[in-house]
Specification:
The complex is a heterodimer of chains A (230) and B (309). Chain A is an alpha/beta fold and 230 residues long. Chain A contains 5 helices and 9 strands, in the order αββαβαββαβββαβ. Chain A has 2 domains: 64 residues, no CATH class; 140 residues, Rossmann fold (3-Layer(aba) Sandwich), CATH 3.40.50.2020. The longest helix of chain A is centred in the N-terminal third of the chain and has 18 residues. Classes of the chains: A alpha/beta (230), B alpha/beta (309).
């Protein structure tokens, strides 16, 4: 989740998004939005953003999760070694959904963990970094950890997650699954499983909505300034 | 929070208090990990500047700083140049010249941390000043009680017993618990009550047995030999008889009433052995929670790059 024109580096963190008001303004259901309609922010910010495209609706998002679940099992030769570790907040929900999807065709439900990376971030002191939830990760020794997050952007959250994992044990391997890869990496990090590669500009904003976390229907949307592509 | 934590007032009322208590929950979880350490305050330096004796507060702050990966330095008066007559100002300037981020101050004079804060660019945390305040003790008390009776403490009845006059813990606790909606009754001999409690959000009683009937929490203060001069009460034995939480008194408490004490306890004086070690006693838990709460305070002062809006 990012806010339009938010400073780079402050944009990828889930906790940043929470601290600053998750949707950055009014989240309008896609049904109410025509492609050229400007949606003003709740604070009356003149810097209005428009809906550029719908990346996933509920159905395609669900299909994407199912596909990633299959890829995880295929690559790891089964589900018995896997621990899915979600990064707060939406990564936790996605990890849970992946576990359910894997159980559907493997009859094994992988363990799911929850990881808060706030205190491992590299921008502490540059902005307000607050924790989001308790870290609960099952034993990862000799397991394959699949980190799960909603949007991969600069890679700094994942770096923090790798540092946090280091204190929780020594997994056999760590892999990364994300719903959307929006590019603009600032670190040498890539995802093993990607729902969708989405080229974006820095002025744009990928908005993920999961029913259990955000309310409403699932969906991923790309928002950005009306004029130009920044 | 403001740059310093000198008083409970700096927390900004109920919302600010609850924000620190919530943050403390995150750190409590970290302190229970196999690897109870996070890199959040790497390269920050925290100095403890203690002009009065302390075991738990100093160790608690130092543990908290280390679990946040901050560097720590300890300054204790007995082994320092203060023995040679160095003033507080010179000492602060010397420490500050080493490039530090926070000073944890304990001093016998009320207001000393305030003074240090004016001299220093670092964040100053009051770890107990004279008879004034001890804000982190109050935070850990509120955090501990909230674990048992939370999330809301509103409407709970707390009885604070003992040496209110000399107690900085009592002053901070009265502020924090009244901000959280707790009804407070102060009990103790008249000689150990403050000269004036005008404006304090408390009621005063001089009958412990009556006050205990309705109490949800009994907070016992330490009889401070070092601050009490001459005969403010006839004898320790008489103090125990009238104001101590004896086993008999504890037996008459409500079944779920809790007992707290800031430590160090004078067992057999303000609190009986059996009570101190009973399931109603939160004393050990208070100490354990102290580390998490102080991590939250240090993180909030040093880790956010300015006040959280």
């Amino acid at each position: 989740m990012t806010l339009p024109n938010a400073p780079e580096g402050a944009t990828e963190s889930k906790s940043a998004a929470n601290a600053t008001g998750d949707n950055g303004g009014v989240f309008v259901s896609p049904k109410q939005v025509s492609s050229d309609k400007i949606i003003g922010f709740a604070d009356g910010n003149a810097n209005a953003a428009v809906l550029r495209s719908i990346v996933f609706d509920a159905q395609t998002l669900n299909r994407s999760i199912t596909r990633i679940a299959h890829e995880i099992v295929e690559r790891n030769h089964g589900a018995h070694e896997i621990v899915l570790v979600g990064l707060y907040s939406r990564g936790v929900e996605l990890a849970q959904r992946l576990a359910v999807a894997i159980e559907r065709f493997e009859n094994v439900r992988p363990n799911v963990g929850m990881l808060d990376v706030a205190f491992f971030r590299d921008d502490i002191g540059l902005r307000a970094v607050s924790p989001t939830g308790p870290t609960e990760v099952p034993d990862v020794s000799d397991r394959v950890v699949v980190l799960v997050d909603d949007v991969l952007f600069t890679g700094r959250t994942i770096r923090a997650a790798l540092d946090a994992m280091k204190d929780l044990g020594r997994p056999k391997a760590v892999q990364l699954a994300v719903l959307v890869d929006r590019g603009h990496r600032e670190l040498p990090i890539r995802a093993d499983y990607v729902g969708k590669n989405l080229p974006t500009s820095l002025a744009e904003d990928v908005r993920v909505r999961l029913g259990e976390v955000d309310g409403g229907d699932d969906g991923v949307e790309l928002w950005g300034p009306k004029e130009g592509l920044a | 929070m403001t740059k310093h934590l000198l008083s409970i007032d700096d927390l900004g009322g109920r919302d600010g208090i609850e924000r620190i208590l919530d943050l403390s929950e995150s750190f409590l979880e970290i302190t229970r990990r196999d690897m109870p350490k996070v890199p959040a305050l790497r390269a920050k330096t925290v100095v403890s500047l203690f002009y009065e004796d302390s075991t738990r507060t100093r160790l608690s702050f130092e543990t908290a700083a280390k679990r946040l990966s901050a560097d720590t330095m300890t300054f204790s008066v007995s082994t320092s140049s203060v023995k040679k007559g160095e003033s507080l100002l010179d000492t602060v300037q010397t420490i500050e010249a080493m490039g530090i981020d926070a000073i944890v101050v304990r001093h016998g004079a009320s207001g000393a941390p305030q003074q240090v804060a004016q001299w220093s660019n670092a964040s100053v945390i009051n770890a107990g000043d004279g008879r004034h305040e001890h804000p982190t003790q109050a935070l850990l008390d509120a955090f501990t009680l909230r674990k048992h009776r939370g999330p809301s403490l509103a409407g709970l009845k707390m009885v604070i017993v003992g040496d209110i006059r000399n107690s900085r813990v009592a002053r901070s606790d009265i502020k924090i618990f009244s901000a959280l909606g707790v009804q407070i009754t102060l009990v103790g001999p008249k000689t150990l009550m403050p000269n004036s409690i005008v404006g304090w959000p408390v009621t005063v009683s001089h009958d412990l047995d009556e006050a205990l009937i309705e109490a949800d929490v009994v907070y016992l203060l330490r009889i401070q030999h070092e601050r009490i001069g001459d005969a403010l009460f006839p004898s320790l034995r008489e103090y125990t008889a009238r104001w101590g939480l004896t086993a008999e008194r504890a037996a008459r408490l409500k079944p779920d009433a809790l007992v707290m004490h800031p430590g160090p306890m004078n067992r057999g004086i303000e609190i009986a052995n059996e009570v101190a070690d009973s399931p109603r006693s939160l004393v050990t838990e208070q100490v354990a929670n102290g580390v998490a709460v102080r991590m939250a305070v240090l993180y909030d002062l040093l880790g956010t790059g300015g006040p959280v809006v």
